[in-house]
User: What shape does this take?
Amino acid sequence: MHTISSGDKVLVTGANGFIAMWIVRKLLEKGYAVRGTVRSADKAKYLEEYFKAYGHKFEFMIVEDIAKSGAFDEAVKELLEPAVNGTVGILKSALAYGQEVKRVVVISSVAAVSDFSVYKLLNEDDWNEPSVIEIKEKGADAAGYVKYYASKTAAERAAWQFYEDNKTGISWDLSVLNPSYVFGPPVHELKSSDALGTSLRLWYDVVVVGGQTEDFLKTGLAFIDVRDVAEANVLALENEAAGGERIIISAGPFIWQQWVDVANSLSLPIPSHSKLPIGYPGLADTAKLPVEFDTRKAARILGLTYLNQEQVTRDSLTDFVKRGWY
Assistant: This one.
């Protein structure tokens, strides 16, 4: 039985990141002990302060280079039942020192599912092979987003291959989550809006800054709130049926104009509400949604439910106002 329960210790890699810090918070709130890895002591200071109320339940380790062979050996060696968000490097450490590890949870992406060039109902059987092929053909000349898609695909393929090659000799199993665009209020350290990650910065630019073209605003993809990603990670640790499964997690498709419309439809009080861009009102009424994911597996195995666009928008704008970002 490859599941964990409240009180067990969980290892979260890159614990100071947008998604990872929400995972740490969710785990601590549910009674787990957490060890987070960060790349420097300086990055750990904010985490120590943010989670100080949990005392010894939260600890951190410095892993300067996650790509270095054996980087996670010490972190895994000392744990009894960690759940791991990482890639092949940490799988190797878990193989070497994690005899009592129960489950490894890897966050991949829907970028590993499709390149979205063809509209179809996408599920966990789909893989983004076109991006990998394009990288092989064009190399450094490939578009930036293609490089990102291909890297996600290759990393997840490698994780599954490592698991299949070694599963007869390990005590743990593997679960992979494939979220769509991740939005929502951040809790990690940010000096300014310029420090936002790619996805959330794009959301901020569309909803708060404005200035995008009509053609751009009728494009989109699919979304999930960062808090739902964190919840999915915990559920993947706790549910036995998640072992050996690839699971798409997504609240649904969108076009960017919809986010603009939602922000402007929110009832007051939202400070600086009148300053929000309006884009092209009515555009969302005629634009075609760009993608569709089959998320029945997430519902069946995890019982996952999702925050909607209004909740994501209200909570994000409220956070940005507190930060003085608009």
About this structure: Confidence is low (pLDDT under 50) at residues 75-86. Residues 149 and 189 are 26 Å apart (CA to CA). The longest helix spans residues 144-166.
